[in-house]
């Protein structure tokens, strides 16, 4: 059995299968790349899918968060 851990995002690979750290669930290298690796653009990252995405997922999540936050603010203001 061979295990590898990315020094950048902490993701681990067991026999070349990526697992999400902490959950032991089978991972998704592309998702990992777009969420973390391609955001840092760190050459030390060992994700084989690093550089194949534009980090869009990360930005989309941030936008989702902003939208939720402004909805919350609007809700709170309405119920003041
Ligand atoms: Zn990584």
Q: Which characteristics define this entry?
A:
single chain, 80 residues, alpha+beta, three-stranded antiparallel β-sheet, 2 helices, 44% helix, 11% strand, elongated, binds zinc ion
Summarize this structure briefly.
The protein is α+β, with helices and mostly antiparallel strands and 80 residues long. The protein contains two helices and three strands, in the order βββαα. The chain has a three-stranded antiparallel sheet, with no helix packed on it.
The count of helical stretches stands at 2
Following the backbone from N to C, one meets helices and strands in this order, namely: EEEHH
CA-to-CA gap between the ends? 59 Å
> Could you say how many structural domains there are in total?
1
Strand percent estimate: 5-15%
Percent range for helical residues?
A: 40-55%
Radius of gyration, in angstroms, nearest whole number: 17 Å
State the strand order across the main sheet.
Answer: 1-2-3
Structural class: alpha+beta
Extended strand count:
3
User: Major β-sheet, in short?
Assistant: 3 strands, antiparallel
Low-confidence stretches: none
Q: Quick one: overall form?
A: elongated
On the 0 to 100 scale, the average pLDDT is: 87
Bound molecules: zinc ion
What does this structure look like?
It is a single chain. By secondary structure, this protein is α+β, with helices and mostly antiparallel strands. The protein has one domain. It contains two helices and three strands. The chain has helices spanning 29-40, 56-78; strands at 3-5, 12-14, 17-19. It has a three-stranded antiparallel β-sheet with strand order 1-2-3, with no helix packed on it. A hairpin with a 6-residue loop joins strand 1 and strand 2 (12-14). The longest helix is centred in the C-terminal third of the chain and has 23 residues, at 56-78. The chain is elongated, with a radius of gyration of 17 Å. Bound molecules: zinc ion (ZN). The site of zinc ion has 8 residues, from helix 1.
């Amino acid at each position: 059995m061979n295990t590898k851990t990315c020094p950048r995002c902490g993701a681990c690979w067991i026999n070349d299968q990526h697992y999400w750290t902490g959950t032991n669930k089978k991972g998704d290298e592309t998702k990992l790349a777009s969420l973390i690796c391609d955001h840092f653009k760190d050459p030390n990252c060992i994700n084989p899918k690093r550089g194949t995405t534009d980090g869009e997922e990360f930005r989309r999540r941030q936008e989702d968060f902003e939208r939720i936050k402004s909805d919350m603010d609007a809700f709170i203001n309405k119920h003041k």
